Amino acid sequence: MPSRPKATGNLILEQKKKTCPWNEEHGAFTQLQLAARAMREFNRAGPGIISGILRDRKTYLLVKEADLKCKRTRSLVFPAVDEELAKWVLHCQSKHVMLSGDLIKAKSKRFATLSGVQNDQLLSFSNGWLQTYERTRREWLGEYWGITCAA
C-alpha cells in the first residue's frame, strides 16, 4: 500500500503574496501547474488553495509588511474604539506620559463604553489583548512603546 501523501497546510500571507504574480507572469499556467510550483517552493499548497489565492489576490497584494508572517488577517471588531485609543496613546507619547498596561486597558474600556458598545459585546481587555495591541501598534509607536511604556 503506498504511503499517504503529505498533508498540505495553510500558507502564510508572505507566501500567498509571492504566489500572486506567478499567474500574471505566466498567464498560460493552470492551477495544477501553479500548485506544483507552490509545492516545490513552499512544500505545500494544492489546487484548491491556489484557486482561493487567485480569487483573493487583490487582498494579498495589499498586505502590510508587518502582517506577512501571519496566516490570515483579522478585521477589528470595534475600529472606532481602536482609532480613539491610538489617538490617545499618540497624544500621551507627545506629552511624554508614562503609560501602564492597566491604564491602557481602563482607557480602552472607557472608549468602548463612550462609543456605545453594549456591556455584553465588550471585550475582556485582558493581558492577552494588551500584548496583541502592543504587537500590532509597535509599527507606528516605534521605540516609545518599548522604553516608556511599562505595559
Automatic annotation (TrEMBL):
Which InterPro entries has this protein been placed in?
Homeodomain-like_sf, HTH_CenpB_DNA-bd_dom
Which residue range or ranges hold the HTH CENPB-type domain?
Answer: 69-143
Q: Which SUPFAM superfamilies does the entry link to? A: Homeodomain-like
Keywords noted in UniProt: DNA-binding
This protein's source sits in the domain of life called Eukaryota
Q: Supply one GO molecular-function term.
A: DNA binding
For whether the record's keyword set contains DNA-binding, the answer is: yes
What is the name listed in the Swiss-Prot or TrEMBL entry for this protein?
AlNc14C39G3395 protein
Q: What is the native source organism of this protein? A: Albugo laibachii Nc14
